[in-house]
Specification:
Organism: Sinanodonta woodiana
Keywords: Nucleus
Oligomer: single chain
CATH architecture of one domain: Orthogonal Bundle
Largest sheet: 6 strands, mixed
Shape: flat
Protein name: Integrator complex subunit 4
GO cellular component, one term: nucleus
Main location: nucleus
Distance between the termini: 107 Å
């Protein structure tokens, strides 16, 4: 008997584990596919037209594999040697340049072939194209210094060609391939042999070429030398200045750029003034020369000159001031002051007519050939630029004027009137540029009443963008007097009357005007609040947006000047309390020092620290929830969820964390409900649809946790996804037990196993340990993948017994993505009417907070017949306000059939799901794929029948 017991003990408590040998890893060899031979078949063509068509088709097929370019190059070179048509040879040279850009080519070999073709070529157009091809080859190999030297030497040999195309191409090659070391070697060799000119001397010689295209190419080459890091000589300045009067537009355009470059290289060097012995700084002289080009006949030159002026920050103050001083010229003579005329008369000793005191003696007219109206230095440059007939020139002039004014407070004050005059421009882009320019100079400026007459006129503009930009500018500006502040307020109220959709922006502007001018607003408070020394005024209506805007201005001004607080009446304090709760970001925290019943703005009893402590305390109470019985655990979760829901509105700084934790605990509470309901599905007391609705609610919560909340770590995401796995497990078990369709069961099983494999990979990558439920499913994944549904159901039933509530500790500061829709407000009773079957647009103005990926934002429209549309807003309608803050200003397109009466359409901002999971497919809606970022707005819509 003892032997038998011993044998049973050994049989029970001893086991043999056989370790399976790991399979040998196999190396998968991938055979590289053979490169197909590319043949142009140029040997079969009979006419140049056919050859040209073949070359054009091959050009459209580029790029090709680099291994196949060798055969193509040989075929092109062979055909080039016996081709008589210059057009075909030009095209072959162009294709050789394109093939040389492909990686892995033998650049030196290609260059040798092109050089050999260049020696026997007679057509100047083809020679120019071959030189351009050599330039492309040299740029493709930046480290081939010897090849560059050889190509530069070859280009020098062809500079004597009679064709301007060849000379221009050679100059472009020299400018593109000359390097600083090449320049130094040229300088050293020229010192040894004075007959060898340097590169810059060579290029400067061609700036006097008879052909303007060659002159332009020479200046372009000098600019390329500068871009490649070569130090240009100061002697080039006089040649560039002389080229500013060239007859050719291209030469003047490049010359003004070269003058600008040299003014940055040698700003403090002194240059001689023409017809004078005086010397001025080079940067001042260059500034005056570029200002002269603002009057050029070419629009491109004027625009380029205006754009270059803004970066000359080292210009003297007197030159800057002259740009805003437009001298008057009359009868070819400049008008002089009376003092200057009297001084000249006294020095000349000439007689007067005697008919008038200090009458000028008759003088001859000035010779027009000796006077140039263009050569007036910097006088009136910006005035001419701002009055130009082309909007491109006016915009560049505004940019340069703003950039120079930002460097000098005195010049900013002088340019203030010129910028404000551009508010009346006929082009909207110019008006917006002027508004932004004045906003950038707000720290130096103070608006006067005469200037506000022009500025405030923009608030009547039909363009919403112009009105919005102007209000943003007024938020940053300061006004001089209380009358100016009153004019701003009256214009804003008129804007509110004309365009009620600007309400939020107007309130924001009122807020900044009151905050920036507390002392100017104080004398206006009695009139703004309708105060009377003897009689009580009527309490205004709080539903009036104009009155709310006035209160926002007054309250913000009172925060900086507490003298206004005793003026507030009883109803004013009540209105303050209401606005402090409804729009706290616009109303400051005012405290009545009297301490009576009207004291408002008291701090909440829940401070931030106490709120966090309470939240942590409630979470610590849930740490032992695993050891509780199901009923007690469920009651504890319900009370915790109820407390955290109340906690969300007490402190905005922890509301996101509290809401995130509340949603997660709700999923655990719903899982406990699923455990109870799963036992009653078979008996019929709980329907499958009700059971699946609970599963769907869990998936919606987990999807929102992963999509809307930012700052959640990988450990928290792992807990959320494991909760999602538990809900999917319940769904699969109910599907296998109740569904009679094999296809539905197979689809549900495939989705579940795919999600399980995805979760396993995520946990392994993040090095996170799974809970008991998930670990068991990982061990049973082979059985779950089988098509034997009883085996699968048995494994899942065993896993469901391991489900227990899990607490998710939040270690980071969580932020929630939100969307606040300002327009449409949903408060109007006027229906949006349009013809049924056609479309109408409803303007939406929404503020987006904590949005990482703007491309995931959608606009959801829900019609009364329960149809839903997702609209992708254009990228240009999303404006970035700051880090993770955006503004969505777009038009929502609505369209529907004929309705018998007006109905409400819900418009909301949603975000596409970012969670990596396989959603349930038993519903046809998209509720689990999108997450709402805020409350929807209801718009009354009335489609009408088309009129015949």
């Amino acid at each position: 008997m003892a032997a038998l017991l011993k044998k049973r003990a050994v049989a029970e408590f001893s086991s043999v584990i056989q370790e399976e040998q790991k399979p040998v890893k196999r190396l998968k060899l991938v055979q590289k596919p053979l490169v197909p031979d590319i043949s142009l078949s140029l040997q079969t063509v009979t006419t140049p037209h056919e050859a040209l068509q073949v070359l054009l088709r091959f050009e459209n097929s580029l790029p090709v594999e680099s291994d196949a370019t060798g055969n193509v190059l040989r075929e092109l070179l062979d055909h080039y040697s016996h081709e008589k048509e210059a057009v075909v040879r030009w095209k072959i040279a162009s294709l050789i340049a394109s093939l040389s850009k492909l990686p892995g080519g033998n650049l030196e070999g290609i260059a040798e072939d092109v050089i050999s073709l260049l020696k026997s070529e007679e057509s100047n157009k083809v020679v120019a194209k071959l030189v351009t091809t050599l330039t492309t080859i040299g740029r493709s190999g930046p480290s081939c210094k010897e090849l560059h030297q050889r190509l530069i030497g070859l280009a020098k040999q062809h500079l004597g060609n009679s064709s301007h195309l060849v000379r221009s191409s050679c100059l472009q090659l020299i400018g593109a391939l000359t390097s600083p070391c090449q320049q130094r070697s040229e300088v050293s060799s020229s010192d040894l042999d004075s007959s060898l000119p340097s590169i810059q001397s060579l290029l400067s010689g061609f700036t006097h070429d008879q052909d303007p295209r060659v002159r332009s190419a020479a200046f372009e080459a000098l600019l390329q030398l500068h871009h490649r890091g070569l130090q240009l000589e100061q002697g080039m300045y006089q040649q560039a200045v002389a080229a500013l009067t060239d007859d050719y537009e291209g030469v003047r355009l490049v010359a003004v750029k070269l003058v600008w470059v040299l003014s940055h290289l040698y700003p403090e060097s002194l240059v001689n003034l023409p017809d004078s012995n005086d010397r001025i700084r080079l940067v001042d002289d260059a500034f005056a020369k570029i200002c002269n080009m603002v009057n050029d006949i070419s629009m491109k030159v004027r625009a380029e000159a205006c754009s270059l002026l803004g970066s000359l920050h080292m210009v003297s103050e007197r030159f800057l001031e002259q740009t805003l001083d437009k001298k008057l010229m009359s009868n070819m003579r400049r008008k002089r002051s009376a003092h200057e005329r009297a001084k000249e008369l006294f020095q000349s000793g000439e007689w007067a007519t005697g008919q008038k005191w200090a009458d000028d003696a008759p003088k001859d007219d000035v010779d027009p050939e000796n006077i140039s109206l263009m050569n007036i230095g910097a006088c009136g440059a910006f005035v001419h630029g701002l009055e130009d007939e082309f909007a491109e020139v006016r915009n560049t002039a505004l940019d340069s004027l703003c950039e120079l004014a930002a460097q000098s407070a005195n010049f900013a004050r002088l340019s203030q009137d010129s910028i404000i005059d551009m508010f009346n421009d006929e082009i909207e882009s110019v008006r917006l540029n002027a508004i932004n320019s004045l906003k950038k100079l707000s720290q130096h400026l103070e608006l006067r009443e005469d200037q506000l007459d022009i500025i405030l006129g923009v608030l009547q503009d039909f363009s919403y963008t112009c009105r919005e930009y102007l209000r943003d500018m007024l938020c940053e500006m300061k006004v001089a007097t209380k009358d100016c502040l009153n004019a701003c307020m009256v214009s804003l109220l008129d804007n509110l009357r004309r365009y009620p959709q600007d309400k939020t922006s107007i309130w924001k502007c009122m807020q900044h005007l009151g905050r920036n001018h507390p002392h100017l607003a104080l004398p206006l408070v009695p009139d703004l609040l309708c105060l009377h020394p003897y009689f009580d005024s009527i309490e205004p209506d709080m539903d009036d947006p104009a009155y709310v805007g006035v209160l926002v201005l007054v309250f913000n001004a009172a925060a900086g000047n507490r003298t206004a607080l005793p003026m507030f009446q009883e109803h004013t304090w009540r209105h303050y309390t209401y606005l402090r709760d409804s729009i706290p970001h616009m109303v400051p925290d005012l405290k009545n020092e009297g301490g009576d019943a009207r004291t408002v703005g008291e701090s909440s009893a829940w401070s931030s620290s106490s709120t966090v402590d309470f939240l942590q305390q409630r979470l610590r109470q849930l740490e032992q929830i695993n050891s509780m019985d199901p009923i007690t655990a469920q009651q504890m979760l319900q009370s915790t969820v109820r407390d955290i829901e109340r906690l969300q509105g007490l402190d905005s700084r922890v509301s996101a964390s509290a809401e995130c934790m509340c949603k997660y605990l709700q999923t655990q509470l719903l899982l406990s409900q699923l455990q109870n309901q799963h036992q009653h599905i078979i008996s019929g007391s709980v329907t499958v649809n009700h059971f699946n609705a609970v599963v769907q609610k869990i998936l919606k919560l987990t999807n929102g946790l992963q999509t809307v909340f930012a700052g959640i770590g990988n450990e928290e995401i792992a807990l959320i996804r494991q909760t999602e796995l538990k809900a999917l497990t319940f769904h699969l078990v109910s599907m296998l037990g109740t569904s009679q369709e094999l296809a539905v069961q197979l689809k549900a099983q495939e989705g579940f196993t795919a999600y399980l494999a995805k979760l396993q990979k995520f946990l392994q990558t993040s090095d996170i340990k799974a809970d008991a439920f998930t670990s068991y499913l990982f061990s049973e994944i082979d059985n779950i993948k089988k098509r034997q549904f009883p085996v699968v159901q048995k494994s899942l039933q065993a896993a469901l017994l391991l489900i227990k509530p899990v607490v998710c500790p939040l270690g980071n500061q969580v932020r929630k993505a939100t969307a606040i829709i300002h327009e449409p407000s949903g408060l109007t009773d006027n229906a949006v009417k349009f013809t049924a079957g056609l479309t109408t647009a409803v303007m939406m103005d929404a503020e987006l907070e904590n949005i990482h990926d703007v491309s995931s934002i959608r606009i959801q429209v829900c019609y009364p017949d329960m149809t839903t549309e997702l609209i992708v807003p254009p990228a240009k309608d999303v404006k970035k306000l700051g880090p993770l803050r955006h503004r969505l200003l777009t038009n929502v397109i609505l369209s529907h059939g004929l309705w018998s009466e007006s109905c409400q359409v819900e418009i909301s901002v949603v975000m596409m799901s970012s969670a990596v999971s396989y959603r349930l497919r038993y519903t046809k809606d998209t509720e689990t794929n999108v997450v709402e970022l805020g409350k929807p707005v209801k718009v009354l819509v009335s489609p009408k029948q088309a009129k015949r």
